[in-house]
């Protein structure tokens, strides 16, 4: 389990959506730019780490019950995409770190960051 | 309540090539199933199936209708599209096989996982296709009558 506030601190991240519950936390982290992989393998409640910043990322997370999104490498979604996420109470975080660095920093905080192997 | 009253039905039109609205039908279907009180596992499976099917229509077909019907024991999605059809269904069902364009891949789709992922989330999955006419998916997810309290 990793708390939203810890994700922000570890990734030097910026919360793009309105502050949510200070208790917000994620059981798992899933990193991918392939939305079909997210739909096929990410677990409900997971935090998605991705380099894609279009509206389909938010829709994919909404459909598959993911609980938050980190955009890496300084990618920033449009105001419209932020609005979509806001409406679904899905926190969005932007970081300048690469996907590898972001994942590496969070991996140490998760007892079991990996998902069930397919 | 008669048997007919036990069935909830709704149609959702999907337009091929309309990437901006892609996912709208699946998100609406998810909200409806939640409102009907289905358990979260069933809702998630049905939403993933609907989303993958909707993206396939947007990416490859000209137009389609998603027909949702819900009974106490199942969620059924029939996706009937007018489009180019699939010449080799077995090949299209292979994980990783894709005919996606660069535009589709840039959106995070077209990785050749859509149809296999639909089959994975379905209890019953049928696919028929005719080249030059279109493709029909018939997907059933059993709910065992479970409802959230």
Structure report:
The complex is a heterodimer of chains A (118) and B (149). Chain A is α/β, with parallel strands linked by helices. Chain A contains five helices and seven strands, in the order E-H-E-E-E-H-E-H-E-H-E-H. In chain A, the strands form two sheets. In chain A, strands 2-7-6-5-4 form a five-stranded mixed beta sheet, sandwiched between helices. A two-stranded antiparallel sheet of chain A has the order 1-3. The longest helix of chain A is centred in the middle third of the chain and has 9 residues, at 55-63. By secondary structure, chain B is of the alpha+beta class. Chain B has helices at residues 24-35, 40-60, 89-92, 102-106, 114-121, and strands at residues 8-15, 63-71, 74-82, 124-130, 134-142. Chain B has a five-stranded antiparallel beta sheet with strand order 1-2-3-5-4, with helices on one face. The longest helix of chain B has 21 residues, at 40-60. Chain B is globular, with a radius of gyration of 15 Å. Chain B starts with 7 loop residues before the first strand and ends in a 7-residue tail after the last strand. The chains are: A alpha/beta (118), B alpha+beta (149).
What is the topology?
The complex is a heterodimer of chains A (118) and B (149).
Chain A: E1 2-3, H1 4-10, E2 14-15, E3 25-26, E4 29-31, H2 35-41, E5 47-50, H3 55-63, E6 68-71, H4 79-87, E7 92-94, H5 99-107
Parallel strand pairs in A: 4-5, 5-6, 6-7
Antiparallel strand pairs in A: 1-3, 2-7
Chain B: E1 8-15, H1 24-35, H2 40-60, E2 63-71, E3 74-82, H3 89-92, H4 102-106, H5 114-121, E4 124-130, E5 134-142
Antiparallel strand pairs in B: 1-2, 2-3, 3-5, 4-5
């Amino acid at each position: 389990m990793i708390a939203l506030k810890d994700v922000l601190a570890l990734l030097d991240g910026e919360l793009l959506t309105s502050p949510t519950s200070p208790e917000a936390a994620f059981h798992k982290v899933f990193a991918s730019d392939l939305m079909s992989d997210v739909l096929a393998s990410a677990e409900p409640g997971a935090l998605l780490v991705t380099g894609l910043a279009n509206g389909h990322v938010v829709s994919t997370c909404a459909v598959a019950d993911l609980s938050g999104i980190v955009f890496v490498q300084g990618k920033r979604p449009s105001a419209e995409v932020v609005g979509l996420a806001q409406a679904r109470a899905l926190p969005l975080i932007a970081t300048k770190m690469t996907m590898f660095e972001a994942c590496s920093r969070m991996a140490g905080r998760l007892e079991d960051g990996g998902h069930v192997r397919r | 309540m008669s048997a007919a009253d036990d069935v909830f039905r709704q149609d959702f039109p999907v337009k091929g090539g309309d990437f901006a609205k892609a996912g709208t039908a699946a998100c609406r279907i998810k909200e409806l199933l939640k409102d009907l009180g289905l358990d979260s596992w069933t809702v998630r499976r049905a939403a993933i199936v609907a989303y993958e099917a909707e993206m396939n229509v947007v990416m490859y077909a000209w137009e389609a209708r998603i027909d949702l019907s819900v009974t106490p024991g199942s969620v059924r999605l029939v996706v009937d599209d007018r489009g180019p059809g699939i010449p080799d269904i077995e090949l299209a069902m292979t994980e990783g096989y894709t005919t996606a364009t660069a535009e589709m891949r840039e959106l995070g789709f077209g990785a050749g996982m859509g149809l296999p992922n639909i089959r994975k989330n379905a209890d019953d999955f049928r696919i028929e296709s005719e080249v030059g006419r279109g493709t029909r998916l018939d997907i059933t997810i059993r709910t065992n009558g479970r409802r959230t309290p």
